[in-house]
TrEMBL record, chain A:
Protein FecR C-terminal domain location: 254-322
Annotated protein name in UniProt: FecR domain-containing protein
Superkingdom of the source species: Bacteria
Transmembrane segments: 84-105
PANTHER family linked to this entry: PERIPLASMIC SIGNAL SENSOR AND SIGMA FACTOR ACTIVATOR FECR-RELATED, PROTEIN FECR
Domain (FecR protein): residue spans on this chain: 115-208
Parts forming coiled coils: 1-32
InterPro entries noted in UniProt: FecR, FecR_C, Ferrdict_sens_TM
Keywords for the protein's UniProt record, in alphabetical order: Coiled coil, Membrane, Transmembrane, Transmembrane helix
TrEMBL record, chain B:
Keyword annotations of the record: Sigma factor, Transcription, Transcription regulation
SUPFAM superfamilies in the cross-refs: Sigma2 domain of RNA polymerase sigma factors, Sigma3 and sigma4 domains of RNA polymerase sigma factors
Protein name, per record: RNA polymerase sigma-70 factor
Organism (species): Carboxylicivirga mesophila
Stored InterPro entries: RNA_pol_sigma-70-like, RNA_pol_sigma-70_dom, RNA_pol_sigma70_bacteroid, RNA_pol_sigma70_r2, RNA_pol_sigma70_r4_t2, RNA_pol_sigma_r2, RNA_pol_sigma_r3/r4-like, Tscrpt_reg_LuxR_C
Pfam family, any one: Sigma70_r4_2
Domain HTH luxR-type as annotated: residue spans: 145-172
Superkingdom classification of source: Bacteria
Family: Belongs to the sigma-70 factor family. ECF subfamily.
């Protein structure tokens, strides 16, 4: 074994929370004698506390759903575009957080049906009431099996375009992690991916009501041609006229960016191409791009983007690594 | 990832509560997955190992009251299962001391990153060059947030040896921060190639 100086042992123990009082004094002495060691201690502390590998939500969800399916002994019942499984419970815990999922599941009739568009595909589904939903890649829609109750309740993670069947008696409610949307009959796009900072609703026709932490008293309504964007971190809701047609375009298999950051684009590409992308440089994450890339494959697309604003990308094992 | 399992109610799971079981998985699956992937260097295999372990927990849930520490129990189970996989591929691997490679998952810098890219690159490189056992012990302390004592029990080594490995990793990282910059682009590439086991 190499000889390791005492100061490194002390620093290592400090980082891991193993330091006792006497050792703390010894470390303080070491630090007082050596300014460069103080700088290193700082770097190590920041690294230790703030830098972690990000387990891809796909791996996390796969482990949870696979395990749930296995322990419940439920075979997927294959119907066109439909699987019935209890593992929706696991998805809900992941996507909505424990407390929200608990509220929904305490219901006596908690049998759930889940519709899934996997990474790399989109899906069209028709719900029992005739409502049509297009699901974007990496999205899931859960409904209660008893869909004919007094409310039509669904849970969305990811993005869906809804064409809700009119039924004034039974309001249609969509729950997402941070926002609830209530509708009668209408057409709109709702995007609520777990790994994005924003939830966005774009209304084409009709009227929808938005509820969440942002409105304790007054209901908030959205009119056609407007988009509502909720920032999950600040809780702020913004309503603006919607000029682009991006809401529609993913449904036709198009891939169009409007002033998107490279960080946002990376998430979209991960879902569309089933890729794993890591951006090493913070500055590069903020580069913005616009354009129609519907016909490009993943590497052509990265090539076009890096030609417009230079960055480097390399494949490494299962990752694509982007740096400056 | 250093979260204690205190508010996971094992007796609920013992009574067949799927929801509490989902919470247990949600709590530990990332840390266990990274540990399994470290040993196996494969995402699908690591996912399978972790899922197998949770299925086993569920199947034997009526004995959960005999488990003193669920976190240690899960890590031990993942270690055994991962080694069993390795043994099938390389007959010379019989226990955790024999592993000759540990995969360190690339780290995504947080958005308000306080470290310079160059510093990070050097830290990664230093970690990449650590001996496999040192890298594993370092990862368990830094990434999984295990205490020295927990690592010692998991790997069947003394706390003193754990202390040595983590200190040795910290020393190498400290020394790497001093080094002069050389061939920046190449460095990143070779680092990631090395880390992904190519």
């Amino acid at each position: 074994m190499d000889n390791i100086e005492e100061k490194y042992r002390l620093l290592a123990r400090q980082l891991n929370g193993e330091l006792n009082d006497a050792e703390h004094e010894l470390l303080t002495d070491e630090l007082n004698q050596d300014e460069t060691f103080v700088a290193k201690q700082y770097v190590l502390q920041v690294f230790w506390q703030k830098f972690f590998p990000k387990v891809k939500s796909q791996s996390h969800e796969r482990i949870m759903t696979d395990t749930m399916k296995r322990v419940m002994g439920i075979k997927e019942v294959k119907r066109p575009q439909m699987t019935i499984w209890y593992s929706a419970i696991a998805i809900l815990v992941v996507a909505l957080g424990i407390s929200l999922a608990r509220n929904l599941l305490v219901d006596k009739n908690n049998e759930l049906i889940q519709y899934v568009a996997n990474v790399g595909e989109t899906k069209k589904v028709v719900l029992p009431d005739g409502t049509k939903v297009d699901l974007n890649a990496g999205s899931s829609l859960v409904i209660q099996k008893d869909f004919t109750a007094d409310k039509r309740q669904v849970i969305l993670t990811g993005e869906g375009y809804f064409d809700v069947a009119k039924d004034a008696e039974k309001p249609f409610e969509i729950t997402t992690s941070h926002l609830k949307v209530s509708v009668l009959g209408t057409r709109f796009d709702l995007k609520a991916y777990a790994d994005e900072d924003e939830i966005k609703a774009v209304l084409d026709e009709g009227k929808i009501q938005l509820d969440g932490e942002f409105n304790k008293q007054q209901p908030v309504f959205l009119k056609p041609g407007y988009a509502a964007t909720l920032n999950k971190n600040t809780g702020e809701l913004q309503i603006q006229p919607h000029k682009q047609q991006s809401a529609e375009q993913w449904r036709d298999g198009k891939l169009v960016f409007y002033n998107h950051t490279l960080a946002q684009i990376a998430r979209i590409l991960e879902r569309r191409f089933n890729a794993r992308i890591i951006i090493l440089n913070d500055e590069v994450k903020e580069y913005r791009f616009s354009g129609d890339f519907s016909h490009a494959n993943l590497f052509e697309l990265l090539g076009y983007l890096s030609a417009a604003r230079p960055f480097t990308f390399e494949t490494s094992g299962e990752y694509i690594v982007i740096s400056k | 990832m250093d979260q204690s399992g205190e508010n996971i109610n094992l007796s609920l799971i013992q009574n067949g509560n799927h929801f509490e079981f989902a919470r247990l998985m949600d709590r530990y699956s990332d840390a266990l997955y990274l540990f399994a992937k470290g040993i196996l260097a494969s995402s699908p295999l690591a996912e399978e190992v972790v899922s197998d372990i949770f299925v086993k927990v569920w199947q034997t849930r009526h004995q959960l009251d005999k488990v003193a520490n669920i976190k240690s129990y899960l890590f031990n189970a993942v270690r055994n299962q991962a080694i069993t996989y390795l043994r099938k591929q390389h007959s010379e691997v019989v226990s955790i001391e024999d592993i000759n490679h540990y995969y360190f998952e690339p780290i995504d810098a947080p958005d308000e990153s306080a470290l310079k890219e160059e510093q990070l690159r050097r830290i990664y490189k230093a970690i990449d060059y650590l001996a496999p056992q040192t890298k594993m012990v370092f990862s368990l302390a830094k990434i999984q947030g295990l205490k020295y004592k927990e690592i010692a029990e998991l790997l069947n080594i003394s706390v003193k040896t754990v202390d040595y490995h983590v200190a040795s990793a910290v020393k190498k990282i400290c020394e790497s921060i001093d080094k002069e910059e050389d061939g920046k682009g190449l460095q990143t590439l070779s680092l990631f190639l090395a880390m992904s086991g190519c």
